[in-house]
Recover the amino acids of this structure.
């Protein structure tokens, strides 16, 4: 290595303490987190293989922050390419690891695709971190690890239930892999965030969710239905043991969720963490499918055509978070109202509709 290159590396090392690697950073939650990190002053580097995202998301990030993060199209399952990236930009303070496949139904029909992508990506990141002196990781887990909890609201001590899908199992396995790896290392630490149901979009409508094909999730399906992409929404069951018979979830605004990652990075380096910490990221309130429909109609002024059909296999009846631990230790809380959040989803859909006209 030439003298210039060596000096640059040493220089980078001393000046890059706020350098964060975001894997899957052009995806739905990743892109909103990149924005919040940049706005908090972090130097953000993104790898994404664009398997479920679009390069144009970079324009949206730039429209909001006035800057573009460093981006490379890399598959996290490619150890050599990831090692090159870590070497090229030596000195990441932490990694936020979003990169994964997330379609629950597809994971049932293609389990190995999910096990390979979600688990191997994480293993590569964890193996490369100590080689490149990166000490902290924030990992995207899910409330899916709780299944149908025995007690509500569900807190982090609630038992992990048998996974209902290979996707859900990858989250359980990844959490365990992180725990074991950090336990065996003196220098690494981790924050695991269990997201409840992220919805909505950035208030500028410059970035949002871009589902590939027919969305499985409720809110994107509602937005597309109102836009005429689908004739009607199927409400999966109204015979549950809930006040209106439809399932209840804890819908968390995606910008609030993104902000939790900034807090998690701060937590990793506040000098108080002894071992990995796990946090629920939710609002603490549940809303039923019918409440989502009615609130969406009220804020958008549009009618949501829907029909009640049979239950969807694998759906749990109700779940919402106890987010007290994140409120206290991360100094984080959900701030955006349900109404504002649903309106942001609709505003984003209107932008998408214009683009696809
Ligand atoms: P997303 O699909 O929008 O984003 C994931 C990003 O990772 C995409 O841009 C995709 O192209 C990229 N990616 C996938 N595999 C990759 C690989 N091998 N190498 C590089 N890039 C890769 O999903 P999202 O909703 O933003 O979810 C982000 C994370 O949060 C995922 O780990 C997901 O499992 C988790 N999560 C999501 C939800 C949710 O409802 N959206 C809930 C709980 C947890
Ligand atoms: C919400 C409610 C449906 C679509 C999934 C994953 C979970 C996590 C979040 C990643 C349910 C109902 C839905 C429709 C409907 N992701 N619904 N008609 O199932 O809570 O969670 O996303 O970790 O792991 O499983 O979210 O948005 O699919 O459903 O009636 O067309 O809306 O039955 O009650 P879910 P969802």
């Amino acid at each position: 290595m030439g003298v210039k290159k060596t000096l640059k590396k040493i220089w980078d090392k001393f000046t890059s303490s706020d350098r964060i690697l975001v894997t899957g950073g052009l995806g739905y939650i990743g892109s909103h987190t990149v924005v919040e990190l940049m706005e908090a002053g972090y130097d953000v580097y993104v790898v994404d293989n664009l398997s479920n995202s679009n390069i144009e998301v970079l324009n949206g990030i730039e429209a909001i922050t006035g800057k573009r993060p460093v981006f490379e199209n890399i598959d996290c399952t490619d150890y050599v390419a990831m090692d090159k990236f870590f070497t090229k930009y030596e000195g990441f303070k932490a990694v936020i690891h979003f990169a994964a496949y997330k379609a629950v139904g597809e994971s049932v029909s293609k389990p190995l695709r999910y096990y390979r992508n979600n688990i191997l990506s994480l293993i590569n990141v964890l193996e490369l971190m100590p080689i490149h002196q990166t000490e902290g990781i924030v990992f995207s887990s899910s409330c899916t690890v709780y299944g149908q909890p025995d007690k509500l609201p569900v807190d982090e001590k609630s038992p992990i239930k048998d996974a209902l899908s290979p996707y859900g199992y990858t989250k359980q396995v990844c959490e365990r892999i992180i725990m074991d790896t950090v336990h065996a290392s003196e220098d690494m630490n981790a924050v695991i965030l269990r997201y409840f149901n992220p919805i909505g979009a950035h208030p500028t409508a410059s970035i949002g969710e871009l589902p590939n094909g027919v969305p499985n999730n409720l809110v994107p399906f509602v937005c597309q239905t109102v836009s005429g992409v689908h004739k009607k929404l199927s409400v999966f069951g109204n015979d549950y043991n809930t006040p209106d018979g439809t399932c209840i979830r804890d819908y968390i605004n995606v910008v609030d969720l993104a902000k939790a990652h900034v807090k998690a990075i701060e937590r990793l380096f506040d000098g108080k963490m002894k071992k990995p910490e796990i946090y629920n990221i939710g609002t603490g309130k549940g809303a039923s499918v019918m409440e989502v429909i009615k609130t969406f109609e009220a804020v958008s002024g549009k009618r949501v055509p829907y029909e009640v059909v049979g239950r969807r296999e694998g759906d749990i009846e109700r779940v919402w978070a106890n987010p007290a631990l994140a409120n206290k230790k991360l100094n984080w809380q959900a701030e955006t109202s349900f109404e504002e959040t649903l309106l942001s989803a609709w505003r984003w859909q209107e932008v998408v509709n214009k683009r696809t006209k």
